[in-house]
Amino acid sequence: MTLVQAIILAVIEGITEFLPISSTGHMIIGSSVMGIQKDEFVKLFTVAIQFGAILSVLVLYFKRFFRSIGFYLKLVTAFIPAAVFGVLFSDKIDELLESPMTVGISLVLGGIVLLFVDNLFNKPKEDNADRIGYPTAFIIGLFQCIAMIPGVSRSAATIVGGMSQKLTRKAAAEFSFFLAVPTMFAATAKKMYDFYKAEGATFTGEQIKLLAVGNVVAFIVAMIAIRTFISFLSKNGFKLFGIYRIIVGGIIIALLLSGRSLAVI
Fold first, then answer.
1. pLDDT tens sequence across 36-55
2. How far from each other are the two terminal CA atoms of the chain, in whole angstroms?
3. 201 C-beta neighbours (distance < 10 Å), count
4. Lowest mean pLDDT among 90-94, 177-181, 185-189, 195-199
5. How far is CA 156 from CA 1, 8, 17, 43, in A?
6. Is residue 246 part of a domain?
7. What is the C-alpha separation between 121 and 65, in angstroms, rounded?
8. Are 30 and 9 in contact (CB under 8 A)?
9. Whole-model pTM?
10. Quick check: is 87 in a domain?
11. Count of CA atoms in the C-beta half-sphere (13 A) of 33
């Protein structure tokens, strides 16, 4: 992986992590286009730079993380399902991370859902993410497990999960951002540990530089994306994201079915 490739993937991560279009899916597409998707360090990199995106949430919502112990307990409650599923199916998840076809299908199916989600859940009762109950937090956590399939989108799954529990789009999106902190931190820590303990796997100076640059870029871009997304979502809903997903997913499926590779570089 070159420095330019690392920056490209970090920009993709920063833009897509908190949008309902699947950051993992887009990074799989990006790494496939650049012909580096099977490299073990690239797989680590696409997970590890999520740490930069985590920091953007902590900076933007700094005060919200110091309100009450109950806030953290709700995040833990929502995090538990993903932690369990992640441990049980980690090998299968790693396999899917190499599958652009899985991404394409997930993008299309998820896009269809987003076309109708605003009409399905159009009677919200709660506009404050801090006031949700533990059962609601747990249900949102169950929705998050669906996002272990590349292309589904963690933010899409958790926001839809929140809306199904009568949260407004804004409240559901904010809780999705908060839940990203323990989820992405755990995923990053596990991937880093697995890579480090692998036989003969050590971090070179170049790899450390790429990780550092990637996290900084992801942090800056994610800060901008979060602010933009909350405003856009509150006013316009999910339909445009759904259309985008269907178009991109359809192109990927069509290319793969025609026998073409996504690698163009």
1. 877 888 888 988 898 898 89
2. 12
3. 12
4. 195-199
5. 29, 23, 10, 22
6. yes
7. 28
8. yes
9. 0.85
10. yes
11. 12
- Count of the separate structural domains present in the chain: 1
What does each C-alpha distance from 33 to 11, 24, 56, 157 come to in angstroms?
Answer: 15, 14, 27, 26
Mention every residue, 6+ apart, whose C-beta is less than 8 A from residue 47: 187, 188, 191
Per-residue pLDDT at 264 exceeds 60: no
For residue 264, tell me if it sits in a domain. Answer: no
Tokens of 36: 């580096």
Q: Is 43 domain-assigned?
A: yes
pLDDT digits (tens, 9 = 90+) for 21-30: 888 888 888 8
Domain range spanning residue 19?
A: 3-257
Highest mean predicted confidence (pLDDT) among 5-9, 69-73, 128-132, 183-187: 5-9
